[in-house]
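Internal QA ticket QA-208
Title: Verify multi-chain structure generation after dependency bump
Assignee: T.L.

Test input:
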Amino acid sequence: MYQFQCDYSEGAHQRIMDRMLETNLEQTPGYGEDHYCTQAREAIKSVLGRNDVDIHFLVGGTQANATVISSILRPYQGVLCADTGHINVHETGAIEHGGHKVLALPSFDGLLSAESIRKAMEDHLSEDGPEHTVQPGMVYISFSSETGTIYALQQIQEISSVCKEYGLPLFIDGARMGYGLASEGCDVTLSDIASLADVFYIGGTKQGALFGEAVVIVNESLKKDFRYFIKQNGGMLAKGRLLGIQFLTLFEDGLYFDLSRHAVSLALRIRDAFAAKEYEFLADSPSNQQFPILPNHIMESLSKDFRFSVWKSIDENHTAVRFCTSWATTEESVNALIKAIPPLYT
Amino acid sequence: MYQFQCDYSEGAHQRIMDRMLETNLEQTPGYGEDHYCTQAREAIKSVLGRNDVDIHFLVGGTQANATVISSILRPYQGVLCADTGHINVHETGAIEHGGHKVLALPSFDGLLSAESIRKAMEDHLSEDGPEHTVQPGMVYISFSSETGTIYALQQIQEISSVCKEYGLPLFIDGARMGYGLASEGCDVTLSDIASLADVFYIGGTKQGALFGEAVVIVNESLKKDFRYFIKQNGGMLAKGRLLGIQFLTLFEDGLYFDLSRHAVSLALRIRDAFAAKEYEFLADSPSNQQFPILPNHIMESLSKDFRFSVWKSIDENHTAVRFCTSWATTEESVNALIKAIPPLYT
Amino acid sequence: MYQFQCDYSEGAHQRIMDRMLETNLEQTPGYGEDHYCTQAREAIKSVLGRNDVDIHFLVGGTQANATVISSILRPYQGVLCADTGHINVHETGAIEHGGHKVLALPSFDGLLSAESIRKAMEDHLSEDGPEHTVQPGMVYISFSSETGTIYALQQIQEISSVCKEYGLPLFIDGARMGYGLASEGCDVTLSDIASLADVFYIGGTKQGALFGEAVVIVNESLKKDFRYFIKQNGGMLAKGRLLGIQFLTLFEDGLYFDLSRHAVSLALRIRDAFAAKEYEFLADSPSNQQFPILPNHIMESLSKDFRFSVWKSIDENHTAVRFCTSWATTEESVNALIKAIPPLYT
Amino acid sequence: MYQFQCDYSEGAHQRIMDRMLETNLEQTPGYGEDHYCTQAREAIKSVLGRNDVDIHFLVGGTQANATVISSILRPYQGVLCADTGHINVHETGAIEHGGHKVLALPSFDGLLSAESIRKAMEDHLSEDGPEHTVQPGMVYISFSSETGTIYALQQIQEISSVCKEYGLPLFIDGARMGYGLASEGCDVTLSDIASLADVFYIGGTKQGALFGEAVVIVNESLKKDFRYFIKQNGGMLAKGRLLGIQFLTLFEDGLYFDLSRHAVSLALRIRDAFAAKEYEFLADSPSNQQFPILPNHIMESLSKDFRFSVWKSIDENHTAVRFCTSWATTEESVNALIKAIPPLYT
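Actual output:
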């Protein structure tokens, strides 16, 4: 069985495992105050080319989202996001559990537009009695998005600009940041992200680590007391060095980006193979998630040897599915898949 | 200036004011444990024709909604409602502040369908890993709705039926319960409401009282410890007898229904007058709120002598507005309005 | 039966009732934006001798406390208060429901000391890893306190001073503000309160109104968007003018203070009568609540004609009880009580 | 420098690291639904000698506490615990963030008594208007406690009995469960815990794992939908197998208990060495945490070669400190410490 179901099926890259083993009996302070965390922060800052950011390591994405959003919003504020946004659909109401409404806006291909943010703000401000409705207090976007698509640099610039105009901090969920940056045609760099977002995180869990997300706080006014938020939200890992070791390994010499490119190049081979056989796609994804639309009988026959996600029913006879590659996907499994794709019409 | 802006512009019906004055220096226990509250509960039970319900008096609608919903849902559950539902759009996120996602479903004319509830449940249950999404835990509908429309008895029966099938308590927001029941063509009675809902409330604020909403808990399993919820949500009025006196006056001899009929009959005269002059309406409302669509120049000219709500822009030149009648609306003001409606085309 | 059980047994002062009746059919905007609210704000500002405060009217005390505290604290902060504070013991966890820990400190006679606040802050700041504990974020005191006692001006100055030193907003719960200010020996004025507190409220419910608490926000940085907090916490009264009318009547010509003095002078007569017969007291209260310690057989015999609260068991044979006077207490009932007090030893 | 500061300074036991390495590239489903988690659950059930429990693996203790407590309490309920309880003092208000008051009761040596639970319940139930106060809804105790002490079997039986009498689920925080069970004189077994608690967890983080706590739900009525709680609270680890692998290794052949005994025996040697030199202790701990009281000059001289925690100032000249051993503590370091302890009086 070849695995394309998700990007978190394996453990971690071998170099991470080796480093964990080597350092296993070393005694360090807990809670992210050890020297590996310090070094990992330095390595990331060096990649970002800036020193004026705060970096915190959390274990998972839902936790990172809930913690960051909790740290930004006032109680009566909500977070604007695409209706496909992870916080809106796949976090069991963690944001609402923290007291905040997720203000979902219509998305196109998983992306949010600057115009829709502007409209939401104008609608709110023009209300007769705005205090009867939730005040938009920040914007959340995902890079790459939940459907594999990415924003062009200009789109993020426009979003950032409208955010600044209305005083809305911009938070970028980077659970798949590396895969987004390595996407075909991507004109965005991690430095761009850092100069346009107020907060963002760099995902480790889906990108070669056992677990871990590196939250980068750029906006000075959002830095204060963030560790209290981490602890209160149950995200303060006792042996924080585990996170430091992993991010240090990923960022000290570019491993993170190498692994991202690996995954994307294999995903694009899968995309091209389906396209060559005239399959259509749910969205035009340039990254590590591909969503071909399969006739149901083909979906079934492929599922005998390949594991993938059933994404969305298109019509009675067709289903969009997701093939996901990762840092751990092998050439061999991609070759097998490509070989197995049947012609669309027979 | 004639007032049609809302149904809470005046104080209370004279009989309520008189009763408050008469009883003013009487000494009673606080917090809803006085004999007026007891009598008011009896009066409402008598109208409902049943004794097996718990009745609590709260001050306002947002408070009633937040308190009831907080008492029903588990932390990971959300409340299904129409996207036009008051809890979704006009309560500043009070439900989310209590930790719960409002699961808004597409509405038609402000109403929710049994089918959409069923679909939401099936979608949730059929997910691969439903625990990653908010579990629907109850259903909220408004009677009459926020756009003046009402459910037919059969529609509520269908909703109640699908709710029972999936174990979802049904909560009916009756901020305008009386106006709904008095609507043209309404085939629903308050007894029907009590036999189909698990909890509902009977609005006083917009229906002749100074303030107050009577929460009726029908479902045995939802009765326990409700007073704790009231207190925790800041809704335990110290001089609770003020609520008892008002609801006693409204329900001991049918005043509530008389006032409701009064308001609706005047609203229908307004509707008929606009219709006679070929105006169209945003929704086909049989109750005390009417939403004619006005050319903007007519909207402006009418606004010189009449106060009404601007509801929704229809196009560049037309706007839907709301004319609202209440227990306090006078024949005279309605006559003046009817006389002032210009022909649509001149 | 003579009533001394609490200070909210009756309705409202006759002048309030009259004004409500006179204005009953007037049409006004809702939600506190009517001209009575405006005038009431002006009347209070005039008494305070300052224009630079924001004033909002809420219905009840628990609601006022939850709303104000929610508007001040960040999610990881708690509120320092006396362990006898109303928010700690009698609000069913409303503050915790809003996400915040009540950080109760030992009280003396219902009061909090500047020293204990300083110690709490120093303890927190000196922790190795303060982010593992709740950060004190504000201070709550009651004037008069839950046990009838009052702070001397110097005590509040010291508390305010330590609050400023540590950046802790000071919030004064004035559910019984008038009774406190009218207390025997009180050297505090409402202007002092306004110059020392960051936020406080002036209670109406227990002081001559049907209901209502006037929240006064002094600190500029706490004013923003407060109406959102009111709405979200279910405290935005539709017919807000009811609050405006009441506070206007209480404050336009000193009625509030007259009523307070009336209640306190009667309470002191009760105190003196018990003292003259050598009864002891739970606390030395100079305000409208008196807590004599009664032998149980005397408690029982008095309870035949007088209603009062059982407060605290002192030992097997003695109980502290509470006699409460209010704006509505009559000379006659106090005379009857005084006459009925038996000698302590017979 | 010899490390006795805490029990989470190192990574994990070598066998855990080996197993992680071996399985690193295996592809498994996420979120705790893999076969390692299944096997780990079986291993723990086998040790417990019962099959009728649900087991879930979470990453950390604060998360486990917040998630379990959130799953048990109704919104107006609080959790009874010792004032020294971890949830009361060291979790940055995570429980309050979830909406619940921590009802701290006086502790003796870090323990809670059945009597104090009974008294808290009786006090609540005997209130005139209990709905004005937080209702106790469950009991939380720690085994071993935050100060190293343990409950005797009879004490837990008494606590469990009073809990059953009042319908309070009993939750045992077992962050140091193994060290507690291995304590000198302990007459409690893990099976006892399972038969007396409604929910408990078995700590991994401090007991040989990289991280992880195994929540065991015994009470049938608390099992429903627990995975929703985990996800909502940010505790659903994507690569859940990491938790499964660790707990499988710890429980398949008794490693967990071996490591616990190792730590405790070394701690007792430290205790005996201090006692032999006539030092006193803050509490009489039979487990892996020892709290000798040191003259400050001795504290300083020892701190040159040994790292330990400063726990509590006793008087001007004396301080209670904590020496903590763990699965990773070496004989050598204990020997060094014992040798270095100076006579108390010289």
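Spot checks passed. Chain A touches chain C at residues 31, 70-71, 74-76, 98-99, 129, 131-132, 135, 225, 227-232, 236 (CB under 8 Å).
Status: verified.
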